[in-house]
Amino acid sequence: MIGRTAARRVLSLIVASVLAAALCGCAGGKTAKDSSGITIAIPQDIDSLDPHYMTAAGTKEVLFNVFEGLVKPDQAGDLVPAVAEDVTISEDAARYDFTIRKGILFHDGSSVKASDVKYSILRCAEAGINASLSAVKEIETPDDTHVSVILEQGDADFLCNLTCAIIPESNKEPAVKPIGTGPYKFVSRSPQENLIVTRFDDYWGTPAGIKDVTFKVEANADAVVMDLEGGSIDMYARVTSAQKDQLSDKFEIYTGAMNLVQALYLNNAYGPFSDVRVRRALCMLMDRQGVMNFVSDGEGSAIGSSMYPSFSKYFMPELNDLYETDVEAAKSLLAEAGYDSSSPLSFTITVPSNYQQHVDTAQVLAEQFAKGGVEVKINSVEWNTWLSDVYSARNYEATVVGVDASTLSATALLSRFHSKAGNNFINYNNPDYDKAYDKAMSSVDDSVRTECFKECERILAEDAANVYIQDLPCFVALNKKFTGYVFYPLYVQDVALLKPAAQ
């Protein structure tokens, strides 16, 4: 992560800039080895080609290869220079001064200018996907290569938000013709079928190792093994533990963490779930280890609130044990809330069908809840239906999904539970939570912010806002014709690092 002081932040970026320049120098004059291309399966279609309006984690991890911000995350979890070559942060963390990387080009061949950066940040703020950008008071562009972002008040974590995509102001159709600065550029898209990109030969950094990449929509989880073995796809980033055991030795299996919070997310505005006793009862009926054993061979990491272990600074393992499995105690709580054998609690879990781990989790939870007299129905829906009905319209009772952090900041995981957050899809409303979160955001003292964020986690756990389960293990199947897969500490697929295996 970025260091705790502004000085350390600047040093981190300067050092990384030197390293990036060195890598580029080593690659100068060389052409990356071509291959016949690679086909990578993705579990759902992307929701937008416009980087400022994409909402699904699956879209962001793919378009990571096409778009870049002023800074971007690397494999170690540090923010490193991208469109900007350096940054200076004021002592009060209210002013961020950037120098645009010399000679950097958009995919259409035009130079990146300060006006494009200003346009992109303001446009992303208007989209409302990244609520933290609303804190921008002013953006100064004294010339074509310098940009200053000035905030309403200091925010020591604000740099994480400037991973938002920089796009050309001249492009009036970014949702149809996406143009970025990343190692790959857009070629075509066939809705519900594929997205095709090709290496950007004028990329400022180390060139991508594979020339052509097809992201193929593989919505049928049952077909993954067959398609991998048959050769219609070369890579799938999230095979289940059962699927990996079915694959032949043609495939290398990379094991890491998904870096997400898998939970039974509860619509707190839905009648029964407005009662904390009901929510706590479900936490007591869940056998977390039983879920993990069935879904991921026990290889997941237990979580007890909306934070996963990779965020070690904020992660609170003690919250994992807040609710012990206790069927009788859960029944007593349900009875207090008015639910018993004559009038049982019943609800529906809506789950996206293209994520087998979440489907499996919903089924295990239904069996566990039944021991407490709770009746659960499972509604398996297509991804687009889940996005529109559950995430956007909030028309659901409960759902099993994994929530990721799109930036290297605790705010990415915790901001959505503020009562005024536009992406608060569980309709959570707790004044104490809002107070703790607002205090964190108003402080530039890292220790204060950390304690406030931890208080937010405690409140979510004690209030049983959701039934927290695990950070799922991630099993990546890659045909041995290729190599170079690297895990990131957030939801990213850095395809540019892949390369043909040595012959």
| DSSP helix fraction | 25-40%
Name the overall outline: globular
Structural class: alpha+beta
Structural domain count = 3
Share in β-strands: 15-25%
Task: Report the C-alpha radius of gyration, rounded.
Answer: 23 Å
Strand order of the largest sheet: 8-9-10-1-11-19-12
Average predicted confidence as pLDDT: 90
Q: Could you give a short account of the major beta sheet?
A: 7 strands, mixed
Provide a brief overview of the structure.
By secondary structure, the protein is an alpha+beta fold.
List the helices and strands and how they pair.
Elements: H1 6-27, E1 38-42, H2 57-63, E2 71-73, E3 79-81, E4 84-89, E5 95-100, H3 114-127, E6 136-143, E7 146-151, E8 184-190, E9 194-199, E10 212-217, H4 224-230, E11 235-239, H5 241-246, E12 251-257, E13 260-266, H6 276-285, H7 288-296, E14 301-302, H8 327-336, E15 346-352, H9 356-370, E16 375-381, H10 383-392, E17 398-404, H11 411-414, H12 431-442, H13 446-462, E18 466-471, E19 473-479, E20 482-483, E21 499-500
Parallel strand pairs: 1-10, 1-11, 15-16, 15-17
Antiparallel strand pairs: 2-3, 4-5, 5-7, 6-7, 8-9, 9-10, 11-19, 12-19, 13-17, 13-18, 14-18, 20-21
